[in-house]
Amino acid sequence: MKPGSPYSPWPVCRCGRARSRKRSLAAPLDPRRSPRPPSWLPTAYPIEVPARLTLADALREKLDLVGTHLGCEHGICGSCTVIIDGQASRSCTVLAASLDGADVRTIEGLSQDGALSPLQQAFADCHGLQCGFCTPGYLMTLEALLSADAPPSREQLLDALAGVVCRCTGYVGVLAAAEAAVAARYGAVG
Ligand code: FES
Ligand code: FES
Fold this sequence. Notes:
The chain is of the alpha+beta class. The chain has helices at 55-62, 118-125, 135-145, 154-161, 172-186; strands at 22-25, 47-50, 81-84, 87-90, 104-105. The chain has five helices and five strands. It folds into two domains: 15-109, Ubiquitin-like (UB roll) (Roll), CATH 3.10.20.30; 118-186, DNA polymerase, domain 1 (Orthogonal Bundle), CATH 1.10.150.120. The protein starts with 21 loop residues before the first strand and ends with a helix. The radius of gyration is 16 Å and the shape is globular. It binds FE2/S2 (inorganic) cluster (2 copies). One FE2/S2 (inorganic) cluster binds at residues 129-135, 166-169.
């Protein structure tokens, strides 16, 4: 992973943005901000959160969205990755109160009407998971990467995958699944 990579494990502190004691966290409302059809968009969840509650804890404890997994809680393992305003982000290092009005996407939004998304299907087909603990992190990381108009280079793909730690699969299946997802999305790996 290159220094300065958006997938770097070192968190960016956003504490300075959380000045008020209580703010609201809202999921996306504007379909123009999403490449997905409106049916994919989750409901807005206006909630009040304590100033020091992380986004990961807000999702899991306030909204019962437990598909976002917590491993290290230090910004290292990547299991808690969600998409904030189009960027893959570690939800354990972001204060929920700093995200007033932000577009936050979680693993719960990937499937539609109970059907796996192409990305999820690629992981299933290529044995890209074993216990599945890290899988939401990989899926949300790749979902953000594959939202670009142009396909990622192999270096970019490896850089993105390096931001998530898996304890089971040995990464071979994960890489195969990622490459299959890229091929399905763009026709070929760039
Ligand atoms: S739980 Fe957030 S990076 Fe590990
Ligand atoms: S599949 Fe078990 S930690 Fe990755």
